[in-house]
Sequence to fold (278 residues):
Amino acid sequence: MSSTVGDLMTTHVVAAFEEAGFKRLAMSLRMNGVSALPVLDADHRVVGVVSESDLLLKLAAPDLEEAVFRGEESDGPVARDLMSAPAVTITADATPREETGPPRSPVVRALAMVAALVATVLFAVVLARLTLTPSYASESLTHVNLRPGDSIRAYLDQPAFRDTVKQLGGNIALGVPFGVLLPVAWPRARGPLRVVALTAVAMAAVELTQGVVVPGRAFDIDDVILNTTGALLGYLLLGRRLGRAVHQPRRRWQRRRAGTDGRPHPGPRLSDGRAGER
Fold:
């Protein structure tokens, strides 16, 4: 006899109301060790889901720092503004296969992964040609930069706006393929933190190689930061969707233990500390 969602689900759920602010949502995700929160309306109905990726995408908004990080949470975004909606729900008597949807075809997954791997190899070749080609003319002008922000400020101070766009945009663009291809080529790389970490390691290795063996090139920590930023943007804008389309969603089923003695289950814990009603 196959298990149902009710047999596998966890019943102590962390949730948030629509009016919960950005900082409260971020604290709830971190303190409870979850990657997403269901969002409830005033009648305790699930109306959406807010995830780490939703928060990271909003974090790029230019006005967020003033509204949130100075403590003015009432002026910042709330769960209603950040959540993905409508929420996809399922009954407790459904099977896990129904919850996760039909399995992806192994052939389609294999083809997608091979295509992503080939694209990654081609991108690596292009990246090597762009970053590991000697530049003898600028050999006397290059210097190592280990202070984050120094080179970025120098790029912004360029007299010609075109040069600023070329330096900043070029470094960001170099990282975008990592965020798009990694979640497809390597299922374990899905997730913004993993994409950022892998990109940072790869680009730091490239920069070290530049500084050690390539004439006219030097290690620059700001280039690694800009490359990693590009990877994060690529993941949030496209890589996350491609990864979900190709690979089965990651599920962390936890077998239910509470309530076996016949006592009623507690409702969801809300991000403001109140207990939800069943």
In short: Residues 252-267, 273-278 have pLDDT under 50 and may be disordered.
